[in-house]
Each structure stands twice: as structure tokens, then as C-alpha cells.
Amino acid sequence: MKPVTSFEGRLSVPYHWHYGKVLSEFFEGLRNRKFLASKCPQCGRVSLPPTSFCGICYVPVSGDLMSISTVCRIDTFTVVRFKYPGQLLPPPYAVGVLKPVEADTRFHHLVRSENLDAINIGAAVKPVWREEREGEFFDIEYFEPVEK
Amino acid sequence: MKNRIAVTGWHESRFSEENAAQSTPEMIFEASHGALRRAGLTREDIDTVVVGSCDTADGISISNVYSVGASGAFLKDESKIEADGSFALYYAVLRLLSGSFNTALVVSWGKGSNFSRFHYWTMQWEPFYTRPLGLSHEEILALQARAFCRRTGFEDKHAEEVLMKNLGNAEANGNAVRTLRGIQCGARGEMAAEPLRDGDLTPRTDGACAVVLENADRASRKKRIPISGFGLSTSTYFPFWRDLSRIASAGEASSIALKSAGWAIDDVDFFEVVERTPYHEAMLAEAMGVGLKDYLGGEMKRINLSGGALGADPEPATGLVRVVQAAKIIAGDCEKTANRVLTLGTSGLGYQTCIAFALGEAQ
Amino acid sequence: MVQTRSSGHVAVAGVSQVGYRHITDLSFPEMIFEASRLALDDAGLSPGDVDCVFFGSGPEFFVGVNYPEMWCADAALGPGRPFARVHTGGTVGMATFAAAYYAVASGEYKVCLAVSGDKLTEGSVQAGLATVANPLYNRRFSAGAVGGAGLGFREIMARKGHTLDDATKIAVKQRRNALKNPHAHLRMEDITEEKVRNSRVISEPLRLLDSCPTSDGAAAMILVREEAADSLGKDVAWVRGVAACAEDSAWPGRDNVDRPEALLNAAKRAYARAGIKNPADEIDVFEFYDPFSYMEYLFLEYFGLASSPEEARELVHSGETGISGSIPAGASGGVLSANTIGCAAMARAVEAVLQVTGKAGDHQVAGAKTSLAHGWGGTFQFHVVAIFSKEKPE
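The joint structure predicted for all components is written out below.
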């Protein structure tokens, strides 16, 4: 008989997260294929996803969100080649840190291209939208290089 | 610690059972920004930020990753205590007493509508032999309540009086999510875990709160509320190994706080405690040395003027909310004012660890 | 930030490390107990001497228990004492040490235990780290810490000119240092540059041997007030300066490569508190938080030890960051050789203490009088730095 040393367990914890008004509008925007960004009234920085306050100037950010270009620049990227639980796709796949050309912040998203050489630091990419959009970040299926 | 540290600002975000209008960082910003305003300070004046929160509640690993901007901690010496917010206050007080910092912002939050309270508590069981039993925290609270009743003669009708008293007090607290007006008198709901009824359990609450601390000499020119003493104590992990009819950690924590403030129990005008059921308010009153007389048919005037956790329980921020309520009482923001308030916060299953603060001038 | 009041100096009187390995013979609380007990023994103190306890561990999802400190209270001298858990991600070991430091410096307590640890092989580390990402938008694209390191490494290569070959040098150096440290987890007797170059790419351009292992372990430190340190009559390490700094995970203009503000500030503040003017000359040993090989180059630059990326490369290539070099970095093998997350940063502080008390054994840096320990966490946004010395500060 096998000695008794350990046992298998599993955790699954449900959550229900609220976006708040600004992120709700951001996701509504994605449903309409738009990037809605916020602008700090003090330092003028443009954030995407938008925020309702500026953590640096420490002031509330109010007013309407502004629609900006959906074109982004690849600041850096990696090809994930290892497996881990809860992974979005089977590896390998590319993840980029993307900076919208009209915003000052960056975010992560998937980057795909038939031509892997087209994925490069500094390359321009644009979102590939899903047909059925639910108002979530994954309404963008992935980003692909902008053809020159 | 004779009047070395003072509370100079405090603020609560708008509490509700489900705040669908604000994300967690937005609640944190509202509380932190408000506390600074009340203290007459800006973010630049703050030397250190300590947050009290819980990854499991937030559903985010290292959840302060996303609170840095909201809590005013950008480029500050920041740290996080994973417990009730009053434990973050404790760490901030130690930081100020060390002489390395003059001002601190302490922030805590809980968005009860975002997470499963059942999982939050049951995940506190060790996985080997208590978790498989599927015990909820309510059952532990019920076992404590029953043992307490057996020993003291406290009864169901007394529990109802405590609940009605707190929900009545909650009427005057604009941030309570449950008040007497909102429920039918006597309707405590179905039995949850005997002797506890649904209404004896605290309401799910979304809320954030923040407190500004300053070194007393720096704060001397303005309205300030000294922290004259504090005390913490911890019990053994398994509730079954403790005397279920008593909350020893609360008694030890409050007596250390009183001693460091130089107060006797009768010097305290009011108490603000985290009572997870009406029974537990009586248990805490007994443990702290207030006595049970008022709770066995007497008038309960000294504890939870704010309505307590039965009025609003944004766990794990509830202990820091007690400190905010105490500050309000001393500052004259409430109907009743007083000079000295003792607060009690807790973490862990069945009050495993407790922390007390003596707010008001030291003796 | 003005120093208004000093409550006397603080010393580290005892340290311990349990692990680092895949620990199957101790449960999580047993491991915490072992670390606490060994640190007390090392200090020559008994449990009754301890006035308060700070506990550290990583995200709850690692251990799978919410508020794991409560489960470990009995193992960590919690009952009857002030007891609280610090949790700041990767910095947690240093942040827990810092809490114990402030507790003693406050004048409220004479002896404080700081104990920190995690068992990473029992839960799901990458799931725990992937949930660091904001659930509201970017969690599903996250690839945990390894994916983040791949992204970071590529950007650093592009902007600083460091190459895969430069990273290889560090990977080999740290794995050789690890062979001298009995607590190191990853031990590769036959490590060569070629082995690093040929190791599997896990998140481009990061290779397996550029990365740390997943380890179980705990560490503990006993911090004491000056008079208690003096009465112990043993070699202690004096805490010369502690500082931390945080920045937002994402903010306009954040630049981890050219201006990691939190790291720069934490280093500057720690130097100021310790009265260090020229770190390369005044500090003898550096224990950086280096879970990935390429990071040593950044640390050399941002801790003020190299004035440019070229100079950082020169220092490494000429062996100056080796155990017998002029700027010994990671003599223990670093986080690259053992990563528990829960005490990886405390291990840096423990190693820094061992070095100035002359107890580092085979990886002892000769004549070390002053040492620096560093931890980082979150998305490279939290940094804690501490400086220790053999001599009591003025």
C-alpha cells in the first residue's frame, strides 16, 4: 500500500466584480468597436482603459470619455511556450504590451499574424473584433499588424 | 504611548449592500481622498500608506497592486496587512512611533457583493480535517453563542434586544445599510444555525474607509483625536480548542489598550466593536470588562452608537470603520459626543485575534 | 520625511532558513514552526522572550487557505501575542522584516519574530500569479510572472543592449554560487554556458535556465532592541536603514526599463537612512531579488553601482559581481537558485545578515562589514531595500 502523505484538493471561488461607471462605458465602447479613453484634468495624461481618478495627481477625473484611435504600438512582446492552469490558449501564442498611439498607458493583449516576423517592437497593430460582442475586453479577439 | 499619535482625518465611502456604480479602486479613492481633505492635507503630505485588505475577498492576488494609485500610495513607502483594517492601523501607528515617518494614511475596504462570503470564511479552515467537514463561519458563531448562553443565562430575547438597539442606533448613521426602519420589529427571519437567526448575521456591505494619522506634535494645532493606547492578542487556531463561551483575545486586547492609555474601564464613554451577531456584542462586553448586567435586561447605552457591524459590515474593513465612528463621536460629528472611545476589531474564525484602540486623551 | 524621534538601534539577533526544496515531510504550519524555532535558537532566546510576531506569505491561492497566518498562529508563537500578517507579493519577506523592524524601533516591543514562507509546490503558482492581473480587463491575457518576465526581457534587450549571452553569464554565475549554499534549491554541478544557451525557451526570449525554480520554504528573523542585543553577547547584524517604495501597476509614463521610479526611490531612501554615499565602496555584499537572470544588469545600474548598461556588462564579464569580486551580487545563488516567493525576499535579508556576521559558510564574502538586501513584487512596482552592518551605527 502507498504511504499516506498527502491528498488532492481543488479550490474554485466565485466572484462578481463591478466595473464602475467609467469601465462600464469603456466596455460599452468596445461593443461598438471604439476605444474610449479618459484624460486627467491636471497632468493631461490619456488613459486606456480609462480611470475615474488620477493616482498621481490624486484628483478625480470626470467629464466625458474621448474616443481615440484603436491603432496601438507594440512596446514589447513574448511568445508563451509553457503550460499553466487556466491558460487562455494552448501554447505557443504571442502576448504583447500595447500602447494605443493616442494614449499614454499600455495594456496586454494577444497578438497574431500569419507572418511572425511582422510582430516586432515598434510595429503598429489594430484590433480584430469579434462578430458577436458582449462588452468585454475579449470583444477584441486579438491584435494584428496594420498593413503598410 | 502618551498622546504621541493622533487621528486627524477620516472618511467612509458611501456604503451599500451592492455598490454597482463604483469599482473597488473607486471606493478606495473616495475614502482616501475624503480622509485627506478632512485632515487638511494633500497626498504630498503623507509619508507612508498602510492598507488592510484581503486577496481572497478582492479575488486578486496581491490586490494592493491595484490600490496604489487609489490609496494615494504612488511613490510612497507602502505596505499591506492582510487582515481587518484595524490591524493596518496598528502597523501604521508602529511606523509613526518608530520616528521614521510623521504622517500615515490607513485604508481598508471590502466589497461584499463581489465575493462569496461563504468561501471567504470557509477557506480559512485548514484543508486536512476541518475543511472537509464543510463548516461555515456561522456555525462557529452559533456554537460560541450557545455556549455563552448556557454559561450566562443570556437568551434569545436578549439577543433580539441587542439587534433592535443596534439597528435603532443605525438610524442615525447615514452609512448603515440596515436600520430598524428597514425591518419589521421582531422579524429576525428564519433560524440560520441555532441559536442564530438570519437577522442576527451582519448584512453584506460594500465600502471603503480611510484614516489619517499624524505625530501629535505635528497635529497639535488642529482638531486631533489622540490614540492613547492599543492592544492586540491572539488565540489558538482551532475554535474548538478555546473556551467557546468566551472571547479571550478581546479581553486581553482591550485590557492592554486600557493599560497603555492609563484608563479604567469606567473612563471609557463609548465602545465601537465588531459584533458579528448580537450574542457576540454581549460576549465582547463581558470580555472587555463592561459587564453583562446591561445585556441581561438592562439598558445598553455604551456599545455601538453607530449601529455596529449589524448595521453595516464591509469586511475586512469593519474594524477600521469602528475607528472612524469613534473619531466621529469624539469630534462631535454625531448626536452624542464623548471624550473617550474604545474600539475593537477582529480577524480569524470565531474572533481568533482581536485588536483594541483607545481613542481620546490619555489619563 | 524627517526623522523626528529615534527609539534606539535595532539588531537582527537570529535567523533561520528551512528549505529550499520540494518539502514533502512538513506541512505548512510545521515548516513555519521549524523556521521560528531555529531562529530563536540562533538568537539564544526562548519563546517567552518574544513580544510580538509578524507573519508573511504570498497570495492565499498558493497555500489554498485564506488568512493562512491564523492557521499557523500556534506554529509562529501567535497565541497571547500581537500577531499580524504582511502580504505584499514578492517583497513580502522583506516587508515582513520591515514590519518587525518598525515594531522594535517603535519602542513598544523588545523582541519581535518575523517569519515568512510559502509552499509553492502544493498549490498552483502560475494560477496564483496570473490572478495578479486585473480581472476587469487583462487577466485572461496574462501569462503569470514568466510571461511578464519574457515581455520585460525583450524590452530591456531592445533598449539597454543586453543580449542573451549577457543573461547566460549571470545564469551560470548564480548556479555556481548556489553550489556553495546548502539552502539553494536548484543545484547543477555540471552547469555550462552551453547548457543555458540550449535550455528550452519558455516565454520568448526567456529560457528555462534564465528562470528561478519553484520552491517550498520558510525563513525567520529575530529583531531586538539595542539593549537586548548588547546583553546577548553575540555577533548581531545592525539594521542601518530600511526603505520601501510603491508605484502603480500601470500609469502614464511608467517605464520599468529606463526609470523604475519605485526601485530608484527605495534605493535612494535606504542609502540616505544608512548614511551611504558611495554604495560601490561602502557596501560589501549585495543580495538582489533576481528571479530572472537578466535582472542583475538592471540592479547594478539602478542601485548606483554601474553608471551605464555598458559598465554593468563590464562588471559582470570581468567577474566583479562574483563572490571574490569588488561588487559581490547574489553570493547565495540568489532567487534564481530558490524561489519560494513567501520568503524569497526574507532570504535576501537573512543572507545579508549571515554575511556581516561571518556565518555564510562556503559563500562567505571575505571581510564583509556592510550588506544590502532587496526585494521586489507586484509588477516590478514594489521595492524594499535594507542595509545591515557588522558595526553598531553611530
